[in-house]
From TrEMBL:
Family membership: Belongs to the GcvT family.
Protein source organism: Ruegeria aquimaris
Boundaries of every FAD dependent oxidoreductase domain copy: 6-364
Superkingdom as given in the UniProt entry: Bacteria
UniProt cross-references to PANTHER family, sorted A to Z: PYRUVATE DEHYDROGENASE PHOSPHATASE REGULATORY SUBUNIT, MITOCHONDRIAL (PTHR13847:SF193), SARCOSINE DEHYDROGENASE-RELATED (PTHR13847)
Positions of the Aminomethyltransferase C-terminal domain: 715-794
Pfam families: DAO (PF01266), FAO_M (PF16350), GCV_T (PF01571), GCV_T_C (PF08669)
InterPro entries on file: FAD-dep_OxRdtase, FAD/NAD-bd_sf, FAO_M, GcvT/YgfZ_C, GcvT_C, GCVT_N, TrmE/GcvT-like
Residues that span the membrane, as ranges: 7-28
Protein name from the UniProt record: FAD-dependent oxidoreductase
Domain GCVT N-terminal: 425-695
Keywords: Membrane, Oxidoreductase, Transmembrane, Transmembrane helix
Limits of the FAD dependent oxidoreductase central domain: 367-421
Length: 802
């Protein structure tokens, strides 16, 4: 072992080994992995080794598909047998809604390139898995690329392949301390100290402690998990083919063949956390005693699904632990505020996600950004609030217990909530507000007409549809009041603020007293932000954006900060309300002490609104005239009361974010994580119209110019009108023309005011002309659609300019 490396990877489980392999593969060979015991001696040795493609999150499904394809490659490269059994796999649906969901997901998989799936009847499924009872099964999805592997062999294969490419690894070497230096890190081990530029926390069950070694509190916790392996099952022994990997979602079990018996794993509803502060250092290749009382119900369902196992013995019980983040996705990437400290933790399914995690992290470290959009696993998708132990316990427990439970897009889950509430929260609740959550904050969805209203859970339009329709009508014809605490606000100041912003944004900076939509690009010219820049004219600027991206944007700002610039996140200080709708000016004029009618569209300034000294911007997300009134937290309740009183004569009504999402799609306004993601470019998303080509240098300029002057993007953003009477597109549904997939939906919603089911989509450029007839699968059913000109509501933008 040398005393200096470029990278030290801490942890020799499947994730650390995959990171090591990918670093070496992409050209960084001065890298070492340290393992305190033997390779795979954390969670990895006792995993069930199941690999399957299905994941409710399309980004994670794509990551899993990459990992599965990689397995045979590393087997070949390393020469290490990984016991790969590609048996194919089944996912069973046991309720009508689940069957609908599975059919919808089958189409979404087609969108993201997973095209080895097929839908089966219960009888067809049973032919492929003859030991299964079809009781209660309504349908199934088959995927070719599913099966199982030998876990220890797989970790060994990653490590061996990495070593063949020049990387090193050492067992029986425990990292005990981390010391940050000017150039990187000192890694203090029980075998001596190593100096390096980067450390990677891939410590699995010990990720919490290895985080704390660097002063980092990661939102991660281990939970226990059971599986059993049976003695020989006669039907299995007699079969001429292997049983497929089978996931019974309604039964909370997964099953695969194990020699001549089967392995049945259980996602326990009655979950149990373990060692929330990290596994003990003396924890070795140990297991917990099985806890049958905790899993009795799921076990009975498993026995009913595979009746023949009732007659054979159970050979082995495994009750082991593995780690979860609050939303179940990995925590990957550069940890904010800790230069050179990288996370590769909370990988719940290391054998089906570890390959993709390793690839993503290695690309990020070497090239500065991953190739694909990594938002759904970015460690910076959480803020400091997620360090709280109870928050971690509630959210990780909720995810674990619901792992196989059907989720609905309009479902609100309770874990870790309510946490942060805007000051007027209680008054708004009394007015009927129904809340969603963004990051730590409760955000208004809509205002129910009565306390007794219960929204039904559905993949289609819910019974809240008419309520949102009425809120949209208020926005388009009258005046609505919307709590905008759920926007992010950053203040930029200092002598070099203007020069810094000019470099950071591809857009021309707004003049004093003006605001502008501002595009931020990465060095490779891909999107990094769809923000709004406000120049208050007193030397301070605001950057406004999506609330849930607060830590993510702050990391970017800090990574690019210059001397003479201060960036402050105002998210704990400033909140506000927006007035939206044609009658909003009449309301604000009643309260403004200054002449606010002189404030033009995209103007901003300081005004006295009633008793509140507010920063006001005339902006519009809905396509209507709108004023965003920003106040301090302590003034939120008073501001709401004054606006409601002033608006009474105009029929003011409170409205929520569901109406915002409907009105914004009627304007074809894109949003982050839907139309705008880190793997898309300005040309693809029409964000190029905001680029100031004639200004000086800015981050991503060369790449943006290359795109502009090149052949153009293969796919571009369009708006679709879909012929759908009961459901709307949501995202990732395939778009078809002449029997060929030409693209996919980026987001969809019902346009209540236009009376159209609308979607935005990325489609092949030669099929992007308005008038092109296409079709879209919405909740699994193919529906006719047509590409329309952008902004079906008020295309000339007269309403918002007022
Ligand atoms: C019962 C069970 C069944 C499962 N089934 C599946 C399955 O079918 N498919 C699937 O994909 N996943 C499955 N999993 C999950 C899978 O085991 C984990 O996702 C995976 O093992 C995580 O790998 P890791 O490398 O992140 O962590 P670990 O395997 O925990 O590896 C971390 C390593 O870091 C080392 N380490 C920690 N601290 C230090 C230090 N300070 N210095 C040096 N070394 C250190 C540890 O010794 C350990 O070897 C299952 C898990 C369980 C419990």
């Amino acid at each position: 072992m040398k005393s200096q490396y470029r990278v030290v990877v801490i942890g020799g489980g499947v994730v650390g080994a995959s990171v090591l392999y990918h670093l070496a593969k992409f050209g960084w060979t001065d890298v070492v992995m340290l393992e305190r015991r033997r390779l795979a001696s954390g969670s990895s040795w006792h995993a069930a080794g199941g690999i399957h493609a299905l994941n409710a999150d399309p980004n994670m499904a794509a990551l899993q598909a990459y990992t599965i394809d990689l397995l045979s490659e590393i087997e070949k490269e390393s020469g290490q047998n990984i016991g790969l059994h590609m048996t194919g796999g089944l996912t069973l649906a046991g309720t009508p809604e689940r069957w609908e969901w599975l059919q919808a997901n089958y189409r979404i998989f087609q969108s993201i390139g997973i095209d080895d799936c097929e839908l089966l009847t219960p009888q067809e499924a049973q032919r492929r898995c003859p030991i299964m009872s079809t009781d209660g099964v309504l349908g199934a999805m088959w995927a070719d690329r599913e099966g199982y592997i030998d876990t220890t062999g797989t970790v060994q294969a990653y490590a061996t392949a990495a070593r063949k490419r020049g990387a090193e690894y050492y067992e029986d070497t425990k990292v005990e301390r981390l010391i940050q230096t000017a150039d990187g890190w000192q890694v203090v081990t029980d075998k001596g100290t190593i100096t390096c530029e980067h450390v990677v926390n891939a410590a699995g069950l010990w990720a919490k402690q290895v985080g704390r070694m660097a002063g980092v509190e990661l939102p991660v916790s281990p939970l226990k998990h059971h599986y059993l392996i049976t003695d020989t099952v006669p039907e299995v022994a007699a079969a001429e083919f292997e049983m497929p990997m089978t996931v019974d979602l309604e039964g909370f079990t997964y099953m695969r063949q194990d020699q001549k018996g089967i392995l049945v794993g259980i996602y326990e509803i009655n979950h149990e956390h373990w060692a929330m502060d990290g596994a003990p250092w003396n924890y070795g290749e140990e297991l917990f005693q099985e806890q049958l009382d905790r899993i009795e119900n799921e076990l009975m369902l498993g026995f009913a699904r595979y009746p023949s196992i009732q007659d054979v013995g159970i050979k082995t019980w495994v009750n082991g632990a593995f780690t979860f983040s609050p939303d179940g996705n990995p925590l990957v990437g550069p940890v904010p505020g800790k230069r050179g400290y990288w996370s590769a933790c909370a990988v719940m399914a290391g054998f089906l996600q570890g390959g993709g995690v390793g690839k993503t992290l290695a690309e990020w470290m070497i090239h500065g950004e991953p190739e694909a959009d990594a938002m759904s696993m970015d460690v910076a998708r959480y803020g400091d609030y997620a360090q709280n132990k109870r928050y971690i316990r509630e959210t990780t427990g909720q995810f674990y217990s619901r792992r196989f439970v059907m989720s609905y897009p309009n479902e609100q889950l309770p874990a870790g909530r309510p946490l942060k509430m805007a000051p007027a929260h209680d008054a708004m609740t009394a007015a009927g507000c129904r809340w969603g959550v963004s990051w730590d904050l409760e955000v208004p969805l809509y205002f129910a007409p009565s306390k007794d209203f219960v929204e039904n859970l559905t993949l289609k339009r819910s019974n809240a549809h008419p309520i949102v329709a009425e809120e949209c009508r208020v926005i388009r014809e009258g005046v609505g009041l919307m709590d905008i605490t759920g926007f992010s606000r950053f203040e930029v100041s200092g002598p070099n603020a203007e020069a810094w912003l000019d470099k950071l944004f591809a857009t021309k900076l707004p003049a004093p007293g003006r605001a502008r939509l501002a595009v931020m690009l990465s060095e490779t010219g891909r999107l990094k932000g769809d923000l709004t820049l406000l120049n208050w004219g007193d030397g301070t600027w605001w950057i406004m954006g999506s609330y849930y991206l607060r830590a993510w944007h702050m990391r970017w700002f800090n990574d690019h900060l210059d001397d003479g610039v201060a960036v402050r996140d105002l998210g704990e200080e400033i909140c506000g309300f927006a007035l939206v709708g044609p009658k909003c000016r009449a309301v604000i004029e009643k309260l403004a002490e200054q002449d606010i009618s002189a404030l033009k569209f995209m103007g901003c300034g300081d005004f006295d609104i009633g008793l509140v000294r507010a920063r006001v911007a005339r902006m519009s997300v809905t396509g209507e005239m709108g004023y965003e009134i920003n106040c301090r937290y302590g003034e939120h309740i008073a501001l709401r009361r004054m606006l409601l009183e002033a608006g009474a004569g105009e029929g003011i009504r409170e409205v929520g974010f569901n109406a915002l999402l409907s009105t914004r799609i009627e304007k074809s306004f894109g949003i982050w994580s839907a139309e705008f993601t880190q793997d898309r470019t300005p040309g693809m998303t029409a964000m190029d119209r905001w680029i100031a080509w004639d200004k000086g240098d800015f981050i991503g300029r060369d790449a943006a110019i290359a795109e502009r002057d090149g052949n153009g993007p293969a796919r571009v953003q369009v708006t679709l009108e879909v012929d759908a009477a009961d459901a709307d597109a949501s995202g990732y549904e395939p778009v078809w023309a002449d029997g060929k997939q030409i693209g996919f939906v980026t987001s969809g919603a019902y346009g209540h005011y236009t009376g159209k089911s609308l979607a935005m989509a990325l489609v092949d450029r030669d099929k992007a002309q308005p008038g092109t007839a296409v079709s879209v699968h919405v909740v699994g059913v193919e529906r006719p659609a047509v590409i329309i000109a952008p902004s079906p509501y008020d295309p000339e933008g007269k309403a918002m300019r007022g």
